[in-house]
Amino acid sequence: MDPLQILVGAGNLYIAPKGETFPAIDADPAGNWEFLGETDGGVTVTLSQVVDLHRVDQFTGPVKATRSEETLKIETNVAVTTAELLAFMNGNSVTDTAAGAGTAGTRKLGLTSGFDVTEYAFLFRGNSPYQAGANAQFEVVVGVFNQDDIGLEFKKDDKTLVPIMVTALVDPDAASEDEQFGRFIAQDASPTS
Hints:
By secondary structure, the protein is mainly beta. It has one helix at residues 83-90, and strands at residues 12-17, 34-35, 39-54, 64-78, 94-97, 106-109, 120-127, 135-145, 162-168, 183-186. It has one domain (3-186): Factor Xa Inhibitor, CATH 4.10.410.
C-alpha cells in the first residue's frame, strides 16, 4: 500500500455559475469560482445507488442485476454565516445598502425561496492519493443545494455552522455517459518541461 493513498486533511468546496469552466488540477480556482468558506467536521462525498436483483423460477439466486437509481451528494458544515452563503442556498440575491448620514450600512436577503431551484457548478478539492502536495477534485457540472432544512444554531459557547448538502443533477451534455454527474480527477505526476 502506498501511504499517499491514505488521505488526510481537509478539502475546499467551491461554487460557480452552471457552465463555468473547471480549473486545471494544478491551478487555483479563478474566474467565477467562489470559496464557500472553512468547513467544520469534514466533507462527505457519497455515491449511492439502488441495485435491483431479478430472479426467475428456475434458480434460487438472482440471475440479473440492474441499477434503477444513483445519486452523488456532497455534504459538509461551513463555519461562516453570511448573507452571501445563504443567498447561494436559496437562490436569492443580497441587497447591499451603503451607510449614509445617520443610517447604518446593511446587507439584506429575502428568506423565501419560491418554486425554482438555482443550479450551480461545484468543485470539491482535496489531496491527491497519487502525488504528495498535489490535488484531487470532484467536479460536479450541475448540482443544487437540496437539504430539507437549513438549521442554524446560535449558541453562546460555540460557532454557528451552516449545513450544506449538494446533489448532482444529470448533465445531458456530458462528454460521456459515465460523466453525467461530473468527474473525479487526481494529479499523479507533475508537468514536464
